[in-house]
Amino acid sequence: MKAALAFRRVGDRDTDAVHPSRPVSRLVNDLLESGIRICTLGESLHFNLDNVVAINFDEGMQSGYHYALPMLRAAGVPSRLYLTTGVRARV
């Protein structure tokens, strides 16, 4: 199995746009305890690897730094944070 999990925001506010930090932390721990390796997106694409998950955060929200980063550091797992830029698309 290979998978990529993408989160927009992680935090403790009760809104539709936020994944609560405790369930996300539980998910990370459950993956590790089940023997699934959490790796970078690049590593997950390597054809010899199996049972891997990559964790990504979209839009560079501050919650990635304040909530997700400490949780992921404590678990010793990598992730990728995608940042948006100030570039405007022309329609």
Extended strand count? 6
Largest sheet: 4 strands, parallel
Rough outline: globular
The DSSP helix count reads: 3
Order of helices and strands: EEEHEHEHE
Structural class category: alpha/beta
**How many whole angstroms does the radius of gyration measure?**
14 Å
What's the N-to-C terminus distance? Answer: 39 Å
Q: Helical amount among residues, as a percent range?
A: 25-40%
Total discrete domains: 1
Q: What are the segments in which pLDDT stays under 50 over at least 5 consecutive residues?
A: none
Overall mean pLDDT stands at 84
Strand content: 15-25%
Explain what this protein looks like in three dimensions.
The chain has 91 residues and is of the alpha/beta class. The chain has one domain. The chain is 34% helix and 23% strand. The protein has 3 helices and 6 strands. Strands 1, 4, 5 and 6 form a 4-stranded parallel beta sheet that branches. Helix 1 packs parallel to helix 3 (62-75).
In brief:
It contains three helices and six strands.
Task: Present the secondary structure layout.
Blueprint: E1 2-7, E2 10-11, E3 19-20, H1 21-33, E4 37-39, H2 41-44, E5 52-57, H3 62-75, E6 80-81
Parallel strand pairs: 1-5, 2-3, 4-5, 5-6
Which short descriptors sum up this protein?
91 residues, alpha/beta, two-stranded parallel ribbon, 34% helix, 23% strand
